[in-house]
Amino acid sequence: MKITRRGLLKITGFSIVAMTALPRMALAARNTLRGLRTGIQPGNKTRLVIETANRPSYSLSYPENQLVVTLSNTGANTTVKPKLATDALVSKISQSQVGDKLQIVADLKKPISEISKSSILLLEPNGDNDYRLVLDFVAGAPSATYTTSAATQTTAITAARKYIVVVDAGHGGKDPGCIGRGGTREKDIVLSVAKKLKSKLDSNGFKTYLTRSNDTYLKLAERASIAEKRKADLFISLHANANPSRKMKGFSIYTLSEKASDEEARKLAEAENAADKIGVEGFTEFEENIRIALSSLQQHAVAEMSEEYANGCAKSFKRASIEQQPGPDVRHAPFAVLRSTIPGALLEIGHLSNSAEEKLLKSDKHQNKIVDAIVKSVKNYNFEV
């Protein structure tokens, strides 16, 4: 299980001039510790929350009866007094400065096992809260390897495997998707982009799978299932949009939510989910099974990771000067294809209902521009949170 952030290329949130030769970390503002607290979660889980002014870059290690969280480019803050829950596994929290790194040392009443990826959340600032690194864990016997530094563990894991990305070309076969005024079919455009994206991701060191590589119809459950079976680290579903207004154009990005963020998002989810009405068998069963399979904690973790990727992807599109549909960077709706334990997003890469954008979406030049933006978003995504 990956438990630390990767190298400097994985750090997000900093704007660096392209021509500089200095490491990105060297130009980052020094982080500040803002809070330390523990609590109890359902299932007798202990929750450790570390609050910082900026997005933290961290690693974990597990000395005997301790949990050590190392924050890069962060100074100690002795004014922060830990707030400890009485029944939590943490008996004491201390700070230790090691060079430019801050070590948060939690003394434990009982040993713990390595904290799984699904039990680690990185929350964006919200209201009175700054960035929060949230770790949930229970008592359990650790293996001997847990005393190894988290950075060493991650280096070994990264060298041994590639991150797995599943790219889903929406619609296909008897389901053409939306059709532009010039007759361009959504299923053809997104398949072309998906193939280009797979090639580019593979050449950048990722292991990429397509849900379909030809004009095949797949139910939404099958698409999500492919990501599960491949044990994907990220799921990207590609679509092209249509709008009653022929003037509407631009990309939009969506993550899964039971409640749509707006009326347009709700209608789009209904339209995309309607693909299963062509072959209804099995859809409702899949939805129920997925809900049973996911714990609330896991759903929360997947949602946070999906949101992080989606926001990064929106930034990547805009930096590539790809026009955005008016509205928020990321929207939310109950897309059936995103019901999964895999973090992911649905990308509407443009509007076929707009004649100018239909021509763009058909061109290899614009498709490659979209692919390059997605590749950058995947490379910048923090797979290890």
Q: What do you see in this structure?
A:
- The chain has two domains: 8-156, Immunoglobulin-like (Sandwich), CATH 2.60.40; 164-380, Zn-dependent exopeptidases (Aminopeptidase, 3-Layer(aba) Sandwich).
- It has helices spanning 150-160, 186-203, 220-229, 263-273, 283-293, 296-319, 355-362, 364-380; strands at 31-41, 45-52, 58-61, 66-71, 74-75, 90-98, 101-108, 120-123, 131-137, 164-169, 207-210, 234-241, 252-256, 330-333, 344-351.
- It is elongated.
- It is α/β, with parallel strands linked by helices and 385 residues long.
- The longest helix has 24 residues, at 296-319.
- The strands form three sheets. Strands 11-10-12-15-13-14 form a six-stranded mixed beta sheet, with helices on both faces.
- It starts with 30 loop residues before the first strand and ends in a 5-residue tail after the last helix.
- α2 (186-203) packs across α8 (364-380) and α6 (296-319) packs across α8 (364-380).
- Helix content is 29%, strand content 24%.
- It has eight helices and 15 strands.
Return the CATH architecture of the largest domain.
3-Layer(aba) Sandwich
How many domains make up the coordinates? 2
Structural class: alpha/beta
Helicity level: 25-40%
Mean pLDDT: 79
Please provide the count of β strands: 15
> Rg from C-alpha positions?
22 Å
* C-alpha end-to-end distance: 11 Å
Oligomeric status: single chain
- CATH class group of the largest domain: Alpha Beta
Question: What do we call the CATH homologous superfamily of the largest domain?
Answer: Zn-dependent exopeptidases
Give the spatial strand order of the biggest sheet. 11-10-12-15-13-14
Largest sheet: 6 strands, mixed
CATH-defined fold name of the largest domain: Aminopeptidase
By DSSP (H or I, 4+ residues per run), the number of helices equals 8
Return residue spans where pLDDT drops below 50 for at least 5 consecutive residues: 1-28, 143-160, 276-297
Q: What shape does the CA trace take?
A: elongated
Strand share of the residues?
15-25%
